[in-house]
Write a structure and sequence with these properties.
Number of strands: 7
Largest sheet: 7 strands, mixed
CATH topology of the largest domain: Rossmann fold
Order of helices and strands: HHHEHEEHEHEHHEEHHHH
Structural class: alpha/beta
CATH architecture of the largest domain: 3-Layer(aba) Sandwich
Mean pLDDT: 88
Length: 285
């Protein structure tokens, strides 16, 4: 852990907690970045996986007395923490019936942080079943997402990993782009932003910002801007080809081939993909 992280108020709240807790050292800088705006606000904060309760005391100290701190755990002993002013629910985060019961009792919440079992179904269920009950401006935070790459116990990597699920959510928020020509679904109507940190994924919820995108232009006149995406050398090649093989270009068979090569950029896309593959290989080094 670096010296700057140790100076953070959230880290001080962690080290001074009266109950035992374990966290990864990189988490505190992420907490400060994504949660500092909620300090001293009247919020409802939920943590899944409370263990001895050390993190509950950390959150209470960090957010202040206006915050309501709620814990969820499988261990019935966690109920003992209620004598310290926390509300504790005992239940299985993979079970839709539990979430129905929880939100029927608690209503909407501001922030839910998943530090529970870390298995794919557990993490995915938390996001999926909680999404309708997060207030606009709230967040769903999933910790220990590195388990999406761990074979032993977590059976990953796989197409059913939490990280792949999160990538699918990114695909879904792009439904707001008219270029995709897809209807907005529940995810694209609720999730405004997805942030990936090492071992943490954050979903920012705000339906007010999740509208279908539209192209807009200002009132100034377009003076010289043209579409250069396909490069000037491409146009020069086509011109030379037309001059040399003009007769072939007039015949329907060759015209279709030429259109595929030039107008659809088949060759240039192929060359681009070769370069991209070289770049992607560096990611695996």
């Amino acid at each position: 852990m670096n010296k700057d992280s140790k100076k953070l108020s959230i880290y001080k709240s962690f080290t001074n907690s009266k109950k035992y807790s374990i966290k990864w050292s990189s988490y505190f800088q992420v907490y400060e970045k994504i949660l500092s705006d909620y300090k001293n606000k009247k919020i409802k904060f939920v943590e899944i996986g409370v263990a001895n309760g050390g993190s509950l005391f950390m959150w209470k100290k960090y957010f202040g007395n206006k915050a309501k701190i709620i814990g969820i755990d499988l261990n019935p002993n966690a109920k003992k923490l209620e004598k310290n002013g926390f509300k504790i629910y005992i239940g299985n985060q993979s079970d839709k019936k539990f979430w129905d019961y929880f939100y029927k009792n608690e209503g909407k919440v501001d922030i839910i942080l998943d530090d529970g079992g870390h298995k794919n179904l557990q993490q995915i269920s938390t996001v999926h079943h909680s999404l309708p009950y997060i207030k606009d401006g709230g967040k769903i935070i999933v910790e220990d997402t590195g388990t999406s790459y761990v074979k032993k116990e977590f059976n990953n990597p796989s197409k059913y990993s939490f990280i792949n699920y999160a990538k699918n959510v990114v695909d879904n928020i792009h439904r707001r782009s008219p270029l995709l020509k897809k209807k907005l679904n529940f995810y694209s109507k609720k999730i405004f932003l997805v942030e990936f940190f090492e071992s943490i994924v954050v979903f920012s919820i705000d339906s007010r910002k999740c509208f279908e995108n539209k192209e807009v232009a200002n009132r100034a006149q377009n003076e010289w801007a043209i579409d250069y995406r396909h490069n000037e050398y491409f146009r020069e090649l086509k011109t030379k080809f037309d001059k040399k093989y003009g007769l072939l270009n007039k015949r329907s068979f060759f015209r279709r081939i030429i259109r595929k090569i030039f107008y659809r950029n088949f060759i240039f896309n192929l060359l681009d993909n070769i370069k991209i593959k070289k770049i992607l290989r560096d990611l695996d080094k």
